[in-house]
Amino acid sequence: MHELSIALSIAEIAAEAAARQEARVVAVHLKLGVLAGVENEALVAAWELARERTTLVGAALVIEDLPAWGTCARCVPHQAEIHALDQWSCARCGAVLDDIQGGRELEIAALEVEA
Amino acid sequence: MIAQTRLVEVRQNVLKHNDTVARALRERFEQAGVYVVSLVSSPGSGKTTFLEETLKRLRDRFRVAALVGDLATENDAARLARAEVPVRQITTGTVCHLDAEMVEKALAQWELPALDFLFIENVGNLVCPATFDLGEAFRLVLFSTAEGEDKPLKYPTIFHTADLAVITKLDLATAVEFDATAAHQSIQQVRPGMPVLEVSAKRGQGMPEWIALLEQRRSNISRSRPVGEHRE
Fold this sequence. Notes:
The complex is a heterodimer. Chain A is α+β, with helices and mostly antiparallel strands. Chain A contains 2 helices and 5 strands, in the order H-E-H-E-E-E-E. Chain B has a 7-stranded parallel beta sheet with strand order 4-3-5-2-6-7-8, sandwiched between helices. Strand 5 (about 105-115) of chain A pairs antiparallel with strand 1 of chain B.
């Protein structure tokens, strides 16, 4: 259960970015890869606590889940999504993928502020 | 009426702080010529016994030390101290993983160039440690023959952050009807090409291979510094 420390980091970074804005923050937009090791629902629950006593009280956490993907030597295009994390193979042709290109993202993409 | 909103781009990595500290640590380790190995596993997989045996096998030829993360007790550090090498405890309280800053703090006043190997034992947990880079050169994920062959399938993320899988407690394999083929299959399924070692720290099986691998990894990176010269 490390989602609380992640949520606190998000609050800290987002509050810093929010301080540069005049407008009220309505939501924090986060990109979350399935391999980041962070549970979506636990993070949202932790966010409710983390945003307290910051300027982000009332701001929602909007999470965009990103898939894991790698490079498939056989398929064109080479970009291959991975559908099951316990089956590290190309969802199209079943070939074994030997690298991971995406899925570890844990990034604050944007602040949504009142216009 | 729905209020109008607009998006202000931030694009900042949430783990930026940890990653920055970890990168600085990695540079320090490289400059000091110390090879840093971290260990992750679930509780009870035999991490501490494996590490104790590793320290004992290295200590006569190399200068070795260990950092041990534990939630509340200092039992692991006390056990490792039996290997008669410097051991420091990081008590994490309720935190379920080590992060780079904890490692940095624990290393304060530690003379890194005086070491050849440093081992970092993470908190027993196969989930949370996956997220945090500690600046290590090499990461092991361990699981025991008693835990079930499908462990990798249940925790694929941690297998993706590790460089080597170690199957421990080989001495129990027969008693628990361990299916080695299934275990290797599940590792390859989540991480094709991942190297695997099977060991019994208690009986010594697989340990010489592990020690040889460590020495080789270290000599690949080490600079012109003489190795293991001034052990007290």
